[in-house]
Amino acid sequence: MNRLERRLSNLAEKNRKAVVSYIVAGDPNLDESLSAMHALVSSGVDILELGVPFSDPSAEGPIIQLGHERALANQTNMRDVLCLVKQFREKDAETPVVLMGYANPIEWIGHQNFAANAAEAGVDGVLTVDIPPEEAGDLNKALIDHGLVNIFLLAPTTSESRIKEIVELASGFLYYVSLKGTTGSAKLDVKDVEAKLAEIRKFTKLPICVGFGIKTAETAAQVARIADGVVIGSALVEIISQPVHAAQRIAAISDYCSLIREALDQH
User: Fold this and answer.
1) Which of 81, 97, 152, 218 could be cross-linked to 25 through a Cys-Cys bond (beta carbons 3.0 to 4.6 Å apart)?
2) Do residues 88 and 38 make contact, with C-beta atoms less than 8 angstroms apart?
3) Domain-by-domain residue ranges, the chain?
4) Is the predicted pLDDT of residue 183 greater than 60, yes or no?
């Protein structure tokens, strides 16, 4: 059981729901990303998800795409992201870190090399948006070999046969995309989410965290009643995009996540 699995297990024992935060590594720069990671943990975030900058982040909406562009303008690459995690681990040895990205940078490094380097840096899990389960075997083996979990996406349109195929490979948790479309999309329907989660749970006991469309503490609390955790992304990246002093941005994301944590703990 690695850090991520242990954290989710401990939360379940306490009947608490996970707050998962997403930021793009290197947006607006690596130093601020490191400060943001520690601030997010201090504000009640349970799992940190770092977006690996990529030139064609096809699953992302405009807000997160711009975050990728800002990080790429600083020439942030996979090596920088792993160094960022290693720096984070100097002060925090417990908070799980998940890398969320696309296949190209991993393929370029090679599955085994990537998994070894990620594990050595202190990464706990990987979510690769554009690798379908039928093509994930080699990466899955490499991650398992190095003690990392492989997180998969499920969507409103995922069929039962596809759910079965995905959960056989998945570990850590399942990331349920609550909306059709890209990150930051329109308002979600909690009843629709509840029905789909019930369908997914027929085939797995893995925790399910829900993302896409969760922007307010109220919505986060509604989703947390039916899920094991909520993923906050676009709202944080939008705060980070604001042209104010870095300390103001860090304070703003801390305040925002504190509200999310408080809302989840009250329900």
Assistant:
1) 81
2) yes
3) 3-265
4) no
